[in-house]
Amino acid sequence: MTLPRLLVLTDRTQCAGPLPRAVEAAVEAGARAVVLREKDLPGNARAALAAELAGILAPVRGTLIVAGRAGGGAVHLAARDAFPGRPRPALVGRSCHDLAEVAAAAAEGCDYVTVSPVYPSASKPGYGPPLGPAGLATLARATPAVYALGGVGPEHVADCRAAGAYGVAVMGGVMRDPHSVAEYLSALHNTVEDQP
Asked: Does the keyword Magnesium apply (predicted)?
């Protein structure tokens, strides 16, 4: 599976309306991979939401990644979650915040990691001071697919890619304005030709 350069993470508390409408608008703007968080929802409600979001992504052959070990075909793990057993999901990502976590994720076979916070972010409090581009560069050397997360705006994309990030992961910015996906994709497109 080819990973897109942009991951959209959900947070229904930051949406102006229903989460599925925000995701639909983000997909219309070009998003092709969405990480469903919303871990506080009861199991049945979360499963129904996952099915609805998968239906939104299906016509564009997008990927729904579900946070947590019970995600199905594509999962996104927290830093301390155990790696899934067999059968292995087709896509496994992990949230990381330091070099040890990134190295461990690479060693266990994660397909990608998000590293955060790269910039100051109200959505990602409590994980220490922002890494900045220099800190991101250190972590990006440990595995081939690192997504910069935390306070990343379209204006930061070039610096994140120059630091070695494969792409960017965005939550608050896209949840508040799903149409901003086009700005992120434009910024990413301008860096792809310059970076491997």
From this structure: no
Helices 99-108 + 132-140 axis angle, to 10 = 30
DSSP 173: H
For the chain, give the mean pLDDT.
Answer: 91
Strands (E), the chain: 6-9, 33-36, 63-67, 74-77, 91-96, 112-115, 146-149, 167-170
pLDDT of 27 higher than 60: yes
Query: For the ranges 70-79, 84-93, 158-167, which has the lowest average pLDDT?
Result: 70-79
- Domains in the chain (CATH in brackets) are 6-192 (3.20.20.70)
Give the number of C-alpha atoms closer than 13 A to the C-alpha of residue 95, restricted to the C-beta side.
23
Its pTM surpasses 0.90: yes
Looking up tokens 């968080």 gives 37
* Residues facing residue 72 across a β-bridge: none
Helix (H) or strand (E) holding 56: helix 43-57
CB-based contact 104:125 (threshold 8 Å): no
Contact in structure between 192 and 5 (CB atoms under 8 Å): yes
Percentage with pLDDT > 90 across the chain: 80
